[in-house]
Amino acid sequence: MNLERLEQTWRELNQIGYSDKGVMRLAYTPQERQAVRRLAAMCEARGMSVRMDASGNLIARREGQQPHLPAVASGSHLDAVFEGGSYDGIIGVVAAFEAICSLDDQGIVTKHPIEIICFACEESSRFGVSTVGSKAMIGELDIDGVAGLTDRDGKTFRDALSECSLNGWPLTEAARAADDLKVFLEMHIEQGPVLENADIQVGIVHGIAAPTRLQVRIQGKASHTGTTPMDQRQDAFLAAAEIGLILEAAALAEKEHGTVGTVGVCVVKPGAMNVVPDTAELKIDIRGTHVSSKTTVLNKLYAGFRQVEAKRGVKVEWTMLSAEQPVLLSEEVTQSLEESCQALGVSYLKMASGAGHDAMNMARRWPTGLIFVPSRDGVSHHREEYTSWEQIGVGASLLEAEIKKWAVVLEADGRPKYEDNERTQPEQMGESA
């Protein structure tokens, strides 16, 4: 593992879309696609075969001694939120690439092929739907649901793909067979303060909280602020504010389960100081690892919609953008990660992830592991996001050890160097929590 080279790869990719305000690499924009193409060129220079699937996922492959065997895959994403941080997603991609470079340096041959997967549209910032590439890869993307989604500029999801020369519609062409992969491993920054506060080097994730996301439209009535009595208004903004407080109260009541709710977007129109707002558009995110707890919050929110309608004389309409299920990761892979930590002398903590990741979709089809490295002050999705290179190096070394284990390193005579944990069919798939 060459930490200096790892950092250089990160810097080279992060030059694309970087600014003093943060990283701007929204999904399917020229900046994000340029970064993906640059990664593809790096992989080709290493002798890897490279292909792009219909959804825009980049798949780079280092062939194994037995190419017909399921591949060991690792990766993450290069797209970012608006004015995002420099570590989210990209760290998992460059760590997977560095693992390949390290194997090349050592002249290592593996029995299984190894793949780097750079997923498309992991972040929801542009179209309001997340982990598009990994959903497409497992064949569970709601294609009709995403086709007409629009970004802030009114551009549809389908048009955005066409502009990137991704014309393989329908996206069902991106789906892969169950025997394509042996295991999937992702490394990511924690995006929270737990590891740093506990002074632990890595987190081994056993479960991922999945988001339920709604788009809400509140229709009130515009009127003059100076001539409309307070008790005769149909103020869409105040209705939106009340809905936000209802969501907060519902999530706080589920604190013991760690369920959270957020109004991340609130657009009020017409936006004039002397006009009572007639419309408000909200985007709401509810997430947790307990299905029943999430459902409780959602039901209280629905009841709140009716209460606000009756109280304020407005109309509340909503659309479910996504309703994903929490996922438990493979116990077999989690145990393997623990054993590697112990062998490497790395301190670790088994933990749940409150943020969604591509790993949660991959776990529905293939045994999957997720490694966290600490985030300073728990900051993420912001230009002040930071993880030290020493911490990244620890996580990357753990990732390389796991890749070597699952891909099966071979001696010169073709025999496995270490214990062969070969499985022709995965014994345990991801389960819904």
UniProtKB/TrEMBL annotation:
Highest taxon, organism lineage: Bacteria
UniProt keywords, alphabetically: Hydrolase
KW Ribosomal protein (keyword) present: no
InterPro entries: Amidase_Cbmase (IPR010158), Bact_exopeptidase_dim_dom (IPR036264), Peptidase_M20 (IPR002933)
Segments of skewed composition (Basic and acidic residues): 414-425
Location of the region described as Disordered in the Swiss-Prot/TrEMBL record: 414-433
UniProt family annotation: Belongs to the peptidase M20 family.
Protein name in the entry: N-carbamoyl-L-amino acid amidohydrolase
